[in-house]
Amino acid sequence: MTAxxxxxxxxxAKLMQNNFSHPTADEIYENARLENPxxxxxxxxxxxNFLAESGAIQKIVVPNGADHFDSTLETxxxxxxxxxxxxxxxxxxxxxxxxxxxxxxxxxxxSIEGHNxxxxxxxxxxxxxxxx
Length: 132
Known about the structure:
Blueprint: H1 7-16, H2 25-35, H3 41-53, E1 58-60, E2 68-70, E3 78-81, E4 87-89, H4 92-107, E5 118-121, H5 124-128
Parallel strand pairs: 3-5
Antiparallel strand pairs: 1-2, 3-4
Helix pairs in contact: 1-2, 1-3, 2-3
């Protein structure tokens, strides 16, 4: 059974397209309501999960926090601020170093089936505001 495209799914996909702020489902829901006041929170959650499962976006599972969603599909890592909750992309050179470490482990005989890495701490803006 194929999933049908709906106006709501198209709206959620449009809101995620080229969105690099790593929004939560609630943030997408609030933006979706600006364009479609009748859309439900459950509809937004279902469509975000569908888009993630189909590979159109990434779902970033944050332990003890709200999941975030990412429109960047290439392998990269994230930093989650424990004060403001914002999610940031880790610089590409760090991603490349981790990728090289994974390749080295594979050369040593490890069979890596997947990995997930989220750095946690306090972002520069929160540190500047004295929230250590």
